[in-house]
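stage 2 :: seqdesign
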């Protein structure tokens, strides 16, 4: 799967599942414990974790996603993309605001 499709799928999932979005860790199981984003036990994800899930990434997740994102036209190449996404995920307490900020971040992608 390409990064654009993974981004769209991840944002769509985040928007459709407000009560399954997590923060601080990439993914959690049904007991709330941290698991790999690609684990069959994962039931909730943060945005970066859901992108990793969509791409099937299990190692070096932040580095791999950053490398894919900075190659996209229209994306700010001077920033660390996953850090920006992480901040939106972990510090946007209103779900609708979180989704809006994510869509704005990737509007030109």
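stage 2 :: out
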């Amino acid at each position: 799967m390409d990064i654009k499709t993974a981004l769209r799928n991840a944002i769509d999932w985040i928007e459709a599942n407000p009560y399954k979005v997590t923060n601080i860790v990439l993914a959690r199981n049904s007991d709330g414990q941290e698991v790999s984003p690609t684990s069959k036990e994962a039931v909730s994800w943060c945005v970066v974790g859901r992108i990793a899930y969509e791409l099937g990434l299990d190692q070096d997740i932040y580095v791999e996603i950053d490398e894919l994102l900075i190659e996209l036209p229209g994306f700010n190449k001077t920033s660390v993309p996953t850090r920006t996404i992480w901040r939106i995920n972990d510090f946007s307490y209103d779900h609708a605001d979180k989704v809006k900020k994510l869509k704005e971040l990737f509007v030109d992608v």
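stage 3 :: structure notes
- The chain has a mean pLDDT of 88.
- The CA atoms of residues 66 and 80 lie 7 Å apart.
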